[in-house]
Specification:
By secondary structure, this protein is an alpha/beta fold. 40% of the residues lie in helices and 11% in strands. The chain has one domain (2-168): TIM Barrel (Alpha-Beta Barrel).
Length: 177
Amino acid sequence: RIHLMAGRVPLGADRAAVAGEMEATFIENLRYAADLLAQEDMIGLVEPINSRITDPRYFLNTPHQAAAILEKVGRPNLKLQLDLFHCQIMDGNLSRNLETYFPLIGHIQIAQVPGRHEPDSPGELNFPYIFELLESLGYTGYVGCEYAPKGRHVLGEAGWLRSYWESRGLHQGGTTK
């Protein structure tokens, strides 16, 4: 799987004025990339990135926009990379968005909102609920942790994950007791 970036609105350009041309170029580029990736049995991912905090100029900023573009591209090896941090900032309504766009999702990324820290840090998102929802939807892919650790962080040390597994009766690595 590889993230195919959408690009940024040119400095000084009006987003609405260049949207049509940017979308057409992105669609053409995605078709080209998808055809190359298909030769290697690879999946291309498009990720909406919020334009409110992270990158005001990033072209692709909502799952709705990404879904419409994926439909226009029409390649089965292109999927949605849904970063719940960006999705919450732009749209909220994560449960409905996960259910609506589930057939398009090829990868999930997480971070707490608003600080972009660990899932168990204070914030808007209820990750045990979200993880259970993903499980109920049948998600079997990876969940990428794209957050800035709030405190001391040692590779392989994720207390929030250990706590979550224990709450579900699992050992580290997801095996049952």
